[in-house]
Amino acid sequence: MASSAVRQILAIEDDPILGTHLKTSLEHRGFDVTLADNGRAGLALARASSFDLILLDVMLPELSGMELLTQLRKHQRTPVLMMSALGNEAHRIQGFDSGADDYLPKPFSIEELQVRIAAILRRVAYERSGMPPAANDDLIRFDDQRCDVRYDERWVGLTATEYRLIKVLHEAAGEVLSKPFLYQQALRRGYSQHDRSLDMHISNIRRKLVREKVTALRLESVWGKGYVLDLQVS
């Protein structure tokens, strides 16, 4: 799809108030949103039309979100962002295991939803183009099998969690990602104000980047907001 084309989103949500809010808010931000209020209707629409992204509620009448996703993944790879008030670890893991690209606990802000949508669409665009995320990091290679980053033929030596964290930040390079978002995406659990695990992982990544002289990546903290990864021009 051309970059100038309007992105098509299917929102499968049985709450009429939230569904209307999603449609109005996202269309105001330039998307074209189709609504479905039950699982069977949503699955039929997903199969019949081509969408850039599906927003999928977990608790749906007629066909649950998990069942819908399982059936959808038999034939289609359309990106799916699950939305649910069931935000505990078991449900998040089940969602990812079923083929979800992201899992957003309710309640959420439209701003956080927009950031997650942008990250998914950007990743899909990179995968389809076969191009690296930026022209100035040609020396950087992300190895999903090894869960590590290689820079100028040197491995950084990341843990699996550190690798997920820097990859999420790299896919959204230049954008500030909130702590709750990074906890969900990289640490795979909910955010707690007194939990310092994320800060510890960020500190470890910074130390390893300095040790291996990885000058193309600069990991910055943004006070009161989160973290951002800047790509440095060599």
Give structural attributes.
three-stranded antiparallel sheet; Arc Repressor Mutant, subunit A; 8 helices; alpha/beta; 11 strands; Rossmann fold; 2 domains; five-stranded parallel sheet; 234 residues; elongated; 21% strand
What secondary-structure arrangement, pairings included, does this model have?
Elements: E1 8-12, H1 16-28, E2 32-36, H2 39-48, E3 53-57, H3 65-72, E4 80-84, H4 89-97, E5 102-105, H5 110-129, E6 140-143, E7 148-151, E8 154-155, H6 160-171, E9 177-178, H7 179-187, H8 197-211, E10 217-222, E11 226-231
Parallel strand pairs: 1-2, 1-3, 3-4, 4-5
Antiparallel strand pairs: 6-7, 7-8, 9-11, 10-11
Describe the structure in your own words.
By secondary structure, the chain is of the alpha/beta class. The chain folds into two domains: 8-128, Rossmann fold (3-Layer(aba) Sandwich); 132-231, Arc Repressor Mutant, subunit A (Orthogonal Bundle), CATH 1.10.10.10. It is built from eight helices and eleven strands. It has helices at residues 16-28, 39-48, 65-72, 89-97, 110-129, 160-171, 179-187, 197-211; strands at residues 8-12, 32-36, 53-57, 80-84, 102-105, 140-143, 148-151, 154-155, 177-178, 217-222, 226-231. The strands form three sheets. Strands 2-1-3-4-5 form a five-stranded parallel β-sheet, with helices on both faces. It has a three-stranded antiparallel β-sheet with strand order 6-7-8, covered by helices on one side. Helix 4 links the parallel strand 4 (80-84) and strand 5 (102-105). The protein is elongated and about 55 Å long. The two termini are 32 Å apart.
